[in-house]
Write a structure and sequence with these properties.
Layout lengths: L6 H30 L3 H13 L2 E2 H8 L3 H14 L2 E6 L2 E9 L1 H25 L2 H28 L1
Antiparallel strand pairs: 1-3, 2-3
Helix pairs in contact: 1-2, 2-4, 3-4
Length: 157
């Protein structure tokens, strides 16, 4: 049995791997944006819209770290290429939400579908349910840390 590594060493390795994952994700997104015919900001916003199931332009601006004016341009461009649409908010018909379209899902599946299949196979085959729960806890913790520091940087402006 090999000796246990110090916890600080494991944390450093985990953070390093997490950052490498983020860098790979960024590189993949560069190519995905190119394949979709959009810029990185527009792809970033598409990701936020899709993950949220739809949101208002103001909510999108806050999530993306953009001005509401910049988000208007993003949504206009995404509508023009057919990847997003403005729809009445069912909770408040005076508001408009932005949602992705079936055209986006069709194009996105060709880009991310093979990766999702690999993720499913690797994660389902390589980890127990309990381990997957712990990994999800880790990601939620890192997301909360990220949110706190995004807020900190916004306050510094």
């Amino acid at each position: 049995m090999s000796p246990r590594r110090p916890k600080s060493e494991l944390v450093n390795e985990l953070v390093s791997e997490f950052r490498i994952s983020g860098n790979q994700d960024s590189a993949f997104d560069n190519l995905a944006a190119e394949g979709l015919g959009v810029n990185r900001t527009d792809l970033h916003c598409l990701n936020i819209i899709e993950n949220s199931g739809g949101l208002t332009a103001g909510e999108l601006a806050a999530e993306a770290g953009l001005t509401t004016g910049a988000v208007t341009g993003v949504v206009d461009r995404l509508e023009k290429v057919g990847y997003a649409r403005r729809v009445p908010d069912p909770a408040d018909r005076r508001r408009v939400k932005v949602e992705v379209t079936p055209k986006f899902y069709s194009r996105a599946d060709r880009i991310w579908g093979p990766m999702k299949a690999d993720w499913d196979a690797a994660l389902e085959g390589g980890f127990t349910s309990e381990e997957l729960e712990r990994i999800t806890e880790f990601l939620r913790a890192t997301n909360e840390i990220g949110r706190r520091h995004l807020d900190r940087l916004r306050r510094m402006k």
